[in-house]
Automatic annotation (TrEMBL):
<dbReference type="InterPro" id="IPR005322">
    <property type="entry name" value="Peptidase_C69"/>
</dbReference>
<keyword id="KW-0224">Dipeptidase</keyword>
<dbReference type="GO" id="GO:0006508">
    <property type="term" value="P:proteolysis"/>
</dbReference>
<dbReference type="Pfam" id="PF03577">
    <property type="entry name" value="Peptidase_C69"/>
</dbReference>
<dbReference type="GO" id="GO:0016805">
    <property type="term" value="F:dipeptidase activity"/>
</dbReference>
<keyword id="KW-0645">Protease</keyword>
<keyword id="KW-0378">Hydrolase</keyword>
<comment type="similarity">
    <text>Belongs to the peptidase C69 family.</text>
</comment>
<dbReference type="GO" id="GO:0070004">
    <property type="term" value="F:cysteine-type exopeptidase activity"/>
</dbReference>
<protein>
    <recommendedName>
        <fullName>Dipeptidase</fullName>
        <ecNumber>3.4.-.-</ecNumber>
    </recommendedName>
</protein>
Amino acid sequence: MMKKWILIAVCAVIFAGQETEACTGLLVGKKASVDGSVMISYAADSHTLYGELYRWPAATWPKGTMLQVNEWDTGKPLGEISQVEQTYSVVGNMNEYQVAITESTFGGRSELEDSTGIMDYGSLIYIALQRSKSAREAIKVMTDLVKEYGYYSSGESFSIADKNEAWIMEMIGKGVGNKGAVWVAIRIPDDCIAAHANQSRIQQIPFDDKENCMYSPDVVSFAREKGYFKGKDKDFSFAKAYCPYEFSALRGCEARVWSFFRKYDKSMDKYADFIKGDPSKEPMPLYIKPDRLLSVQDVQNAMRDHFEGTDLDMTQDAGAGSYKVPYRWRPMTFNVDGQEYTNERAIATQQTGFVIVPQMRNWLPDAVGGVLWFGVDDADMAVFTPVYCSVTDVPECYRVGNGDMMNFSWTSAFWIHNWVANMAYGKYSYMIQDIRPVQQELENSYKEALPAIDAAAVKLYEKNPAEAVRFLTWFSTTNADAATTRWKKLGEYLLVKYMDGNVKKEENGHFKQNGYGLSASPDFPGYDEEYYRCIVKSAGERLKVK
């Protein structure tokens, strides 16, 4: 009997017992970007997810090798599938051929989950990355896998992109006893941008556009069979059939898409009532043509959004406190005097494991063209460092096993960023003014350096591809580790400056002294007038000076 080789799926090792939830993904076509890049983004949001950068080297597998599949969220063993002969190198959510895949869970109809399936959404992503040289091939790999082995997860939206095109694919199971899934994939036009955030977004399906649309043969007939849809094929909506709108999906999910879209299309404000929870209003389009081209920095900054400039702005109500904190601790809803209320759910959120912007560039060799912009924790205070898709090593600060959710590490970027962010949440309006310049200094330095790094790498690649890969690995790891060291220094500075609610005075780049070698008396900023009024309203008589 042939020896059985078992490859343990990443979820069992890295994400055992963890659950990703409420993720956000943005997509940018190559003619909608300033330089011709295809870009997508992803915030892996979870209260238990530890931010690490994982990697699989390319490998050749003996015939008959079996691959153990474990559920990405929990590590639960789901079954075995046949391994392919050749797998490709993958770092994070991008492979060596500049294919990138991300996701957001929409759930959908609970009766369509299949506990007997083998392929969960996370395993689909990372297995497809190891087996695909293009986005279209990845779609075929993923849909073939669920057809053969069954789909274990609930409804899912996938961003699937390569150096030439970007797709959104939505998939949901067919329930126990109905192996496989119903799905539809639509290519985002090159001159458009798109987004998804935990709500199915594909409405009508262009069945005749075979070049830009793929779908399961029973995507409509199965909905009819289940009683989800009655009508003509042309009127069929995937979202309405398999993931009907409800208040939380609009306010907590579609609102994030709207906040991104409205930055690049002034007409999007007409959907304000829809995203505030009125499903009777016209839904937003799957994609829009932006009024200006987007850079990689634009996409990174979009991942830092808290509804600024809208009437959902999280700094504009009492929940923000005196220091205008654009965050609300969970749960998402709360009750007062028998009435339920909601907290806003922005793109940037505190419970993020890692955040990425994969950038794919077709005018460069794959080893140079693919850049995974990688950061950890809250996107608002993350630093996106460039990691080329061809690297053969992972920066120490992002390395698997460098700390975990229960064990702090001073060399872990995830823990250093959480340390800084959790200080900032207590005095946000002050500390963000010190955080933002350091963040911009680091990210601008990468922006300025990359053209020269690209050029040097291309020259090396023409002579010796392996040498080019070594160079790009050195650049990627060195910058990420240096950024973590710089962020640790920032944290030390913030702790000293804002200790005990005060603000130390500064002079010529140093904390001011009193003239005798000791600290000058700090400032006592207290709270703003609006917050003091709230205090007076709730406890005024008790606190009144007489």
